[in-house]
Design goal:
With 334 residues, the chain is an alpha/beta fold. The protein has 15 helices and 15 strands. β7 and β8 form a beta hairpin. The longest helix is centred in the N-terminal third of the chain and has 23 residues.
């Protein structure tokens, strides 16, 4: 492949990413890092978990993004009494024209392309598990039948970290299936003032569709072609291994505060997200700085802390930052 088509495709990718930013910005005020993080997950083909206090715009962001993408969208409001069949669907008895009764599968809201799992931690683990197969294999098993989900497919989930009553922590296996975990913070003075202007006046702000499914799949395939030099790839590997206590690259903080570290999915997320960040910066390769920049959203939800960390109020973010400061970019064999 010649360099010219690659350069042209890279330029088109950056322009499309910026268009999506701009359209989301018509409705969503501020939170640029969060918007970029969600868009990165979409172009990487991964799921995204948004955590933040109520009213910070998590659901609004997902709804706005759905308006920008010409894809089938569905929303699932998670509650303690929600059942797995409410998500994946169920077999119902129908009557044919000849009067014969037969079982027919009625698809649930998981049969979409963008699925908003709102307040996902309010459902029981049994119900949360209904998402696992869809998030990883992009399929749904009902009885003896396996139904493939239409591509592209991704889950954008929100959860509230404040309220504890009536909530269930997400299983570690489910957390691992999110490419990013993004912490949504509060708006600043100027952003909050703009929010008030937009929501208390008569003007309407709406986002327009800018990309469809086939185009999104092409961009997903293209960004995976970005180059990763062996030393950069090794840096991502060592960062991931540094989260595992007792391992060769484990830091002092890891051995002291971590019970379980990241799976290989963490390393995959680091490399994919770094490739996209490099492309957005005008490069056709991922760098050490790209890996470092995406380490927090890639690894924070894949680190399981022990009791000592909980007692000393140590957060996963602190562990990741300690690893970033302790693990050298270039590694020399001893």
């Amino acid at each position: 492949m010649s360099a010219e088509p690659i350069v042209q495709q890279a330029t088109e990718f950056r322009e499309m990413f910026q268009k999506l930013r701009d359209e989301v910005g018509k409705v969503m005020v501020g939170h640029k890092e969060i918007v970029d993080g969600v868009l990165t997950c979409i172009f990487a083909g991964g799921n995204c978990l948004l955590e933040g206090a109520p009213g910070l715009g998590k659901t609004l962001l997902v709804r706005t993004l759905a308006n920008c993408l010409n894809l089938h969208f569905s929303r699932i409001q998670f509650t303690p009494d929600l059942m797995p069949a409410d998500i994946i669907g169920t077999n119902i008895v129908t009557e044919s024209e000849g009067g014969r009764r037969e079982m027919k599968f009625q698809p649930g809201p998981i049969f979409a392309q963008i699925v908003l799992a709102d307040e996902v931690n309010r459902a029981t683990p049994k119900t949360q598990s209904a998402l696992l197969e869809a998030m990883q294999e992009h399929s749904v098993t009902v009885g003896r039948n396996i139904y493939k989900l239409e591509q592209p497919f991704f889950v954008l989930a929100t959860q509230n970290p404040i309220e504890q009553e009536g909530t269930y922590p997400l299983p570690e296996a489910q957390l691992d299936r999110f490419l990013f975990k993004l912490n949504v913070g509060y708006s600043g003075r100027e952003d909050l003032a703009e929010v008030l202007r937009r929501t208390t006046e008569t003007a309407k702000y709406e986002a327009n569709q800018v990309i469809d499914g086939p185009a999104l799949l092409r961009y997903r395939s293209f960004v995976r072609q970005a180059l990763v030099a062996p030393p950069v790839l090794d840096f991502a590997v060592r960062l991931t291994l540094a989260t595992i206590p007792g391992g060769e690259f484990a830091t002092e903080a890891t051995n002291k505060y971590v019970r379980f570290g990241s799976s290989p999915r963490g390393a995959q997320a680091l490399v994919l997200a770094a490739k996209i960040r490099g492309m957005l910066d005008g490069r056709y390769h991922a760098s050490f700085e790209d890996i470092t920049a995406v380490a927090l959203p890639c690894l924070r939800h894949r680190i399981i802390l022990n009791f000592e960390a909980e007692a000393e109020n140590i957060s996963p973010d602190q562990i990741v930052k300690d690893i970033l400061s302790a693990v050298p970019k270039q590694y020399e064999e001893k």
